[in-house]
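From the thread on structure requests for the teaching lab: each student submitted one protein with a one-line request. Submission from student K.M.:

"Model FAD:protein FMN transferase from Methanolobus profundi, tokens only."
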Amino acid sequence: MRYKTVAIVLIAFFTVLFMIDHVSDLGPADPIEDQSYSQTRSLMDTTITISVVGNNETHALEVIDNAFEKMYYVDEIMNNYDNDSEIAVLNKESAVYDADQELIYVINRSKYYSEVSGGAFDISIQPILSLWASKYSPGGTYLDPTPEEINETLELVNHSAILVEGNNIILEEDMAITLGGVAKGYAVDLAIDSMMNDGITSGFVNAGGDGRYIGTKPDGSMWRVGLQNPEKSEDAVTIMDIQDMAVATSGNYERYFSDAAKVSHIADPRTGYSSQNLISATVITDTAMDADALATAVFVLGENDGMEMIEELEGVECLLITPDKNIVRSSGFSGYEIKE
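Reply posted by the TA:
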């Protein structure tokens, strides 16, 4: 019996030695390589893709969920078509008291864009947009508004009449605002901030062509962003290398195909008519909100005034496609383009 016990001990001993030797042959565990994890959802009247770079799928999906929640939150507050949103209440009641801080920030920032663009960007343009919509909706005349209607409605377009006092926002009677030119960009920025707070250093948020990109792709290269050729949707006018920057485009690509397509979704707050100065304007800058708003402003201003504004702003570049299909770049835009 004693020998049997010794034999069992010796077998166990050599088994442990074998396991130790076997494990040592394997060496240290190989690290899990980074990869991209992405989700695409429909939100804010567009398609939004959020992608994060990491090596833990569970964490990556949690990060993406958190980022989307930020975007849902912006949409709940700033969606004109949701009667319960704060902006809808503001437009109906001409005032919101104890307003959400996000809404206050976006309105104040929007007034800055109005100042730097000389009024080419103005969130109080909603009455003009509503006037045009009423003409080209079922039951409408399907004719342009008369000059008298335009001029009368333009009296309600005045960003300086938007009053922000503490947590209260007040409009003059019959005024209304739209954040269509900034809310999407702001939502992208909040989503990126959420990702970074969750420990992500590389990834992107793309909302219908308006995107912000941080860090690099899993292979260490910059994010590549193509600007669609309005003449051939499968081609790109240019391809950009983007890292820790945002890109946004405003445009009326229908003008490429038909001179009759004169009603753009972007109206000039100074005239009340659809902007016809450019086919598209693409802006690169630090934040998606800035890129979104400035692209709209440049589109309205046109080639000369728009480029002058961009050149005066630090850290902002743009590419324009003119009505005669020429491509015009700001002084530093080519620094982002891939040289083939």
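TA comment: The mean pLDDT is 88. The CA atoms of residues 52 and 60 lie 6 Å apart.
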